[in-house]
Amino acid sequence: MRCSVKDLFIYPVKSTQGIAVPHSNVQECGLAFDRHFLVTDTKGKFITGRSKAKMVLIQTRLDANGLILDAPQMPSLPLQYLEFSDEYHPVQVWGDNFKGQHCSTEADSWLSRYLGVECRLYYFGPNSVRHVNNTTHPVSFADGYPLLLVSQASLRDLNQRSSEPVSMAQFRPNIVVKGCGPFAEDSWHKIRIGDVEFLVSKPCSRCVFTSVDPITGRRSENKEPLTTLRKYRQGRDGEIYFGQNLIPLNSGKIHEGDHIEIISSQAPVF
């Protein structure tokens, strides 16, 4: 079997439920519509599923003029691009400080009510500027890189070792690959999918967010998958790694079923 794209996912609002898509336009900052919205506290610091696990239960629906959010025991929240505020405020994602376009007080109130803490919702607007660390390459509200790739074989390998089943959704990838061996992606340096060439930049470090069940919003009592991954995927820096961060080197379109062409390889860390 040749290596190919099994699934594609976007996460329009950072830390909320993903959307499976059959194809996607790849832009400089990642897949179209991926992580273009960010929930913050009143000071602009990002809020994610690491601290608010129930964020994974927020569902997003895209429409022609914006998107619609749904969550348990909450009314639907329509968000229209043309109705967003013109104001840009400082926001923070990890160590990056930049500006996001404030959406609306209605969105703030809806999220505050659902999460039980005062929130703000921001859009990565035309005047928002952020770059991948130590590069000039743009990135939106993702943790640090435009895309994340994981192979199905790597997840299968993990589940053969884990004390409880782990789903791919817990790792929140953009691209899921099939037809390769476990952790084959660790040895890729440059790849081509469809129209787009990607730099496989670095392994993705994983945190407690991976222990949140995407169906129930509850954390694993056994702290899986981190407990198992720590046994064989922990780097010298103490971080736990699973999946690879990608930087697109050009724009174009990718589809489910596209062949993964390995342009160049590198020595894997593990």
Automatic annotation (TrEMBL):
<dbReference type="Pfam" id="PF03476">
    <property type="entry name" value="MOSC_N"/>
</dbReference>
<dbReference type="Pfam" id="PF03473">
    <property type="entry name" value="MOSC"/>
</dbReference>
<protein>
    <submittedName>
        <fullName>MOSC domain-containing protein</fullName>
    </submittedName>
</protein>
<dbReference type="GO" id="GO:0030151">
    <property type="term" value="F:molybdenum ion binding"/>
</dbReference>
<dbReference type="GO" id="GO:0030170">
    <property type="term" value="F:pyridoxal phosphate binding"/>
</dbReference>
<dbReference type="InterPro" id="IPR005303">
    <property type="entry name" value="MOCOS_middle"/>
</dbReference>
<dbReference type="GO" id="GO:0003824">
    <property type="term" value="F:catalytic activity"/>
</dbReference>
<feature type="domain" description="MOSC">
    <location>
        <begin position="119"/>
        <end position="263"/>
    </location>
</feature>
<dbReference type="InterPro" id="IPR011037">
    <property type="entry name" value="Pyrv_Knase-like_insert_dom_sf"/>
</dbReference>
<dbReference type="InterPro" id="IPR005302">
    <property type="entry name" value="MoCF_Sase_C"/>
</dbReference>
